[in-house]
Amino acid sequence: MGEWLRRALVVAAKDIRLELRSKTSLLSGTVFAALVLLIFNFARDPTSLSTLDLAPSALWVTYAFAAVVTLNRGFSVERENAALDGLLLAPIPRGALFFGKYLANFAFVSVVEAITLPLFVLFFDLDLGGKLPGIIAVAGLATAGFLAAGTVFSAMVVRTRFAELMLPVLVLPFMVPPIMAAAEATARLLGGRPLSEILGWLRFLGFYDIAFITLCGMTFAFVVDE
Amino acid sequence: MSNGELERAGRVVRRGGWITGAALAGVAGIYVMALAYTPVEVRQGPAQKIFYIHAPAAWAALLAFSLVGLASILYLWLEDPRLDRFAAASAEAGVAFCGVVLTTGPIWGKPIWGTWWTWDARLTLTLFLFFLFLGYLVLRQALPDPSERGRFSAVVGILGMLLVPFIHVSVYLFRTLHPQPILIKPSSPSLPPEMLRTLLVSFAVSTLLYVGFVTWRYGLTLALEAREHHARG
Amino acid sequence: MADVPQNQGYLVGAYVVAAVVYLAYTISLWRRARKALRKEELPG
C-alpha cells in the first residue's frame, strides 16, 4: 500500500513539476475563471436579482468550466512531449498512475479555485465571515468528485482530434450531481446557515467521490493500455 | 472471402429491416388503438394519450442504455468485438428513443402540467441519457482505431451507468427543494382495461422496435467492416 | 361535470413528432445500409 501510494505521488510530483515550469494550465484556468465571473457580474440586472441569489450559481459555473479548461491543458502538454508513452513503459500499477494524475489535476484545479475565490468575494460583495471552512470543504469534495471522471476522459480525448471540444461533451454530465450539491450547499453557507445544515450535501458529495474515484481508478487501465 | 462477409452483413441488415418494419407497423397499430380504442380521460383530455407513445419510448431508452452498460462491462472483460458492435448499435437506438421521449414529453407536459418542461424524474433522466449517448457516439466517431474505440467507449458506458443513480438522487433532492408548479394534477389510479392493454402492447412494440433498430445497425456495422477488409485485403 | 379539456392539438402534434423521429432514424439506417451493401463499387 505504501509502495502504491509512493508511486502515485511520484507521478503526481512529475506532473506538478512539469506544470510549474510552464504554468500554462494554471494561467489559462485562472484567467478564464476571472473573466467568467466578470461576465456574470455584468450579465446581471442588479435590480431584479440580488448578488446573494446569483452568487452560488455563478461560482459553481465558473469553477466547472475553469476545471475543464485546466484539465484540457494538462494532457495536451504530455501529448506534445510524448511523455505519456515513456511513463507507460514503467511498471506502475495503473491505479497508482490514475491516482497520481488525479492528485496533480486536483492540485492544479484547487489552485485555480483558490485564486478565484477572493475575486468572487470581491465582485459579488460578499461577507465570508466564518463561512470559509465550510466553503472550502464543499469545494474540495465537489472538485474531488468531478475530477475523477475528468482525469479519465482527458486521457481519452488526447487521442482525438478535437480534444478541447470532446472533453466538455464527455465530462459535463458527470459534473452535474456534484455541482448541484455544491451550489446548494454554498447557497446555504452564504446565507448564513450553519455547517450542520449542509451535512446531507457533504454526505452526497462524499458518496459520489468514493464511487467515482474507485471506478475511474479501475477503468483507467483500459484507457492507457493496449 | 470478404464477399461472403458482405453477404452475411446483408442478411443481418435485411433481418433488421424486417423486424423494424414489423415494429413500425406495430407503432401504427398503437396509434390506432390509442386513438380509437382507448377512452378519453376526462380530467386530462385527449392529450393524455400521448402517454402511450411517451412511456414505452422511455422504457426503450432505458433498456438501450442498460444494455450499452452491460455490453461495455462484458467487452472490457471478454474483448469480443461483437459486444462492441452491439453496444454501438444500442447507443444509436437509444438516441432515437430519447428523441421521442424528449419531444413527446414537453408536448404532453404543456396541456397536462401547464408547463413545457418540468424537472421530473423520467424526463430529466432521459435528458442525461441523451447526452451520455451523444458523448458516447461522438467519441466513437473521433477514434479511428478499433481497439481504442471499443475500450474507450466501453469505459464511458460503464461510468455512465454509475452516474444514473446519482442523477436519480439529484433529481429527487432538487425537486424537494424546488417544487415544480403543477396546475393540473394528472390522474393516477384505476386504469380501465383498454388503457392497460394498449399500454402493454405499446411496451412490447417498443421493445420490438429496439430489437429491429439494433439488428439493422449491427448489420450495417458488419457491412462497413466487410468493405474495409476488402479495401485492405 | 366539468368539460373535458380540448387539447387534441397536442395529441396530434406529439404523435406526428414521434412518427417523424422513428421514421427519420429508419430512413437513416436504410440509406446507410444501402450505401454499405453496394456490390459494384467494392473498393480495392
Describe the model.
The complex is a heterotrimer of chains A (about 230), B (about 230) and C (about 45). Chain A has about 230 residues and is mostly helical. Chain A has one domain (about 1-225). Helices cover about 85% and strands about 0% of the residues of chain A. Chain A contains eight helices and no strands. Chain A has helices spanning about 1-20, 25-40, 50-80, 85-90, 95-125, 130-155, 165-190, 200-225. In chain A, helix 3 runs antiparallel to helix 5. The mean pLDDT of chain A is about 90. In chain B, helix 2 packs antiparallel against helix 3 and helix 3 runs antiparallel to helix 4 (about 120-140). Chain B has one domain. With about 230 residues, chain B is mainly alpha-helical. Chain B is built from six helices and no strands. The model of chain C has no long low-confidence stretch (mean pLDDT about 85). Chain C is rod-shaped and about 65 Å long. The chains are: A mainly alpha (about 230), B mainly alpha (about 230), C mainly alpha (about 45). Chains in contact: A-B, B-C.
In short:
Chain A is an all-alpha fold.
Shape of chain A: globular
What is the N-to-C order of secondary-structure elements of chain A (H for helix, E for strand)? HHHHHHHH
Q: Mean of the pLDDT scores of chain A?
A: 88
Give the total of beta strands of chain C: 0
Distance between the termini of chain A: 26 Å
Stretches of chain A where pLDDT falls below 50 for ≥5 residues? Answer: none
Structural class of chain A: mainly alpha
- Largest interface (C-beta under 8 Å): B-C, 50 and 30 residues
What is the radius of gyration of chain C? Answer: 20 Å
According to DSSP, the number of beta strands of chain A is 0
Q: Outline of chain C, from the CA principal axes?
A: rod-shaped
Which spans of chain C of ≥5 residues are poorly predicted at pLDDT below 50? Answer: none
Main beta-sheet strand count, sense and barrel state of chain C: none
Mean pLDDT of chain C: 86
Fraction in helix of chain A: over 70%
What are the secondary-structure elements of chain C, in order, as H or E?
A: H
Individual helix count of chain A:
8
